[in-house]
Amino acid sequence: GAVVSQHPSRVICKSGTSVKIECRSLDFQATTMFWYRQFPKQSLMLMATSNEGSKATYEQGVEKDKFLINHASLTLSTLTVTSAHPEDSSFYICSASQGGWTEAFFGQGTRLTVV
Amino acid sequence: ILNVEQSPQSLHVQEGDSTNFTCSFPSSNFYALHWYRWETAKSPEALFVMTLNGDEKKKGRISATLNTKEGYSYLYIKGSQPEDSATYLCASINYNQAGTALIFGKGTTLSVSS
User: Which helix (H) or strand (E) holds B66?
Assistant: First the structure.
């Protein structure tokens, strides 16, 4: 299957700093990319959907100014957690698809710890 | 508000048992249903993409059916093996005002004992 690379896999940052997570589709053009967050013992919660060249569509309850999403090319989307706080500590994972009904391919996920 | 429900939440079976899980999804404005398999320490991987009412897909010992009119899908595993232990996620894609929305269920965690 197609490969999606997510980086970094783990990051520890100080409270108040910003962290950028990258999601790259390595062998296909990702028209649509999704960003998810997983809380402990829960499933994936969709945070936002981004289409290349357009502003991301955020799910209800997700702060746009805190979780900045950029999808500037068909192979790269970034999630920036701004002014991180301990409650932002979580597992973040991206997926990418060629759009429509096609399957999504997932990155490896990023474990963010804010201290 | 779109909601995708999966049951049971967790399941423990013995090697060789056959089992099945349920995914309930909104039938209105339906576009597609995905099944994913998520093993510990790995990324979720797509098992099936289903779009048509009555669809049946099969991959080895795993198969899935789709009923778009009533909004449910079943995933079957025949002769479960320990390597089948994973969380199985379904995701529904439905049309909305913004285009389409992909919503995951909470998953069914399967544990197979040898």
Answer: strand B62-67
Residues on B contacting A at a C-beta cutoff of 8 Å: 31-32, 34, 43-46, 49, 51, 89, 91, 93, 98-107
Tell me the per-residue pLDDT of B24-58, one tens digit each, with 9 for 90 and over: 999 999 999 999 999 988 888 999 999 999 999 99
CA distance A101 to chain B (A): 6
What is the token pair recorded at A98? 């060629």
H-run or E-run covering A68? strand A67-73
Let me know how long chain B is: 114
Instruction: Convert the pLDDT of each residue in A26-60 to its tens digit.
Output: 999 988 899 999 887 777 888 998 888 788 889 88
Instruction: Give the position of tokens 């779009």.
Output: B51
Q: Hunting for tokens 């490896």 — which residue is that?
A: A108
Per-residue confidence (pLDDT) for residue B1, from 0 to 100: 54
Structure tokens at B87: 């969380």
Tell me which DSSP letter residue A71 carries.
E
Which residues, in sequence order, are CB contacts of B3 under 8 Å at separation 6+?
A: B26, B103
d(CA B80, CA B18): 6
